[in-house]
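REQUEST FORM: STRUCTURE PREDICTION
Request ID: SP-0412
Submitted by: Lab K.M.
Chain count: 1
Length (residues): 415
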Amino acid sequence: MKICIIGQGYIGLPTAALFTMHNCEVTGVDVNEEIINKLKEGIVHIEEPKIADIIKKALKKNLYHPSLKPEKADVFIITVPTPYIPETYSCDLNYVISACESILPYLKKGNTIIIESTIAPMSTDDEIKPIFEKEGYVIGEDLYLAHCPERVLPGKIIEELVHNDRIVGGITPKCSKKAKEVYKKFVEGEIIETEAKTAELSKCMENTYRDVNIALANELTKICAKIGVNALDVIKLANKHPRVNIHSPGPGVGGHCLAIDPYFIYAKAPNEAKMIKLARDINNSMPKFVVDKTMEIVPDKKSKIAVLGVAYKGNTGDARESPALDIISLLEKEGYNIAIHDPHIENNDYFSLKDACHDASLILILADHNEFKNLDYNLIKNNMKNAIIFDTKNIINYVPEDVKLINYGNLSDLN
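STATUS: Completed
RESULT:
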């Protein structure tokens, strides 16, 4: 089977890797020339276990072909980004539409086209299907079109692509069957056939469910800080109930899924999706909440703050939609001197832990990297102006007596 995958990012590249492991010939297409050139040399641009080794082996076997343009194939898979339009909260399909149009010269009857990009409900029916119908193709007879959303956790993408259940939503039942045959190559979880619009909404609701529950935890944190209760203790005790599972609060919600997908539902039915929009507003308010508390801890705006972590997800280099970026921007606008340290992100403007902490009045933890769970406290005490840590990810369990730890459990002590 020959497969052409448009988009070689966090989903497209791992998907390409897995198909090559099952002797499929894969063309990996991306518009970023630098990414393609690096991939040709076996250099992977995302931090994700196993992928680099798989890609190098596939290149040697001539099973993986990085390219700036599509090629003829049996299956075309679209994995490009789908941002939202802030003014309307609706799904921006421009990248998906462009990707679909790019494969038109390479299509032949019998091809299967799969949209993996997360899209708003009815997008496949209303926006994507007509692109191919205008070329004279009958969907379900000439071409087989389906929406098959991914559901993976950064850091475990390969593992979850293989073992997680997969939804395949075809425009017709035959489209679903054709798409299912494609994923049978490597998916060991259940492959569930449904309609495209049902698959679209299912994916959006998976992320909305998590966003809403995180919003509940974040709102609880604000309440506890105001009335003088330990939010972390409340969550721990409430979760002793066999049917309660309050999520962990944090500095906000990031990533290309949770921070965006709920808007796709809201844009379709704003009068009905009131809870969904409120949850987004609560989570979007957390960066300012963190900044306000930081200013209470360090009132002198000329102070230096060492920010640990920019990635939205621990132990990854993924900073897409990260609330840390908003927090840093807000602190800089207030006049604070910000020194950033993130061991998972390459950036010439970032510092080593020692340099970030030098003469700093506060360490602000914004990512739950393993490196931050057991910090070198001697280094911290010897370099900081004031040895204070504000842990917004609630990952530090112990500090020496001469280091002050503030987290979402003791924020009320600031009042």
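NOTES: The longest strand covers residues 2-6.
Reviewed by: T.R.
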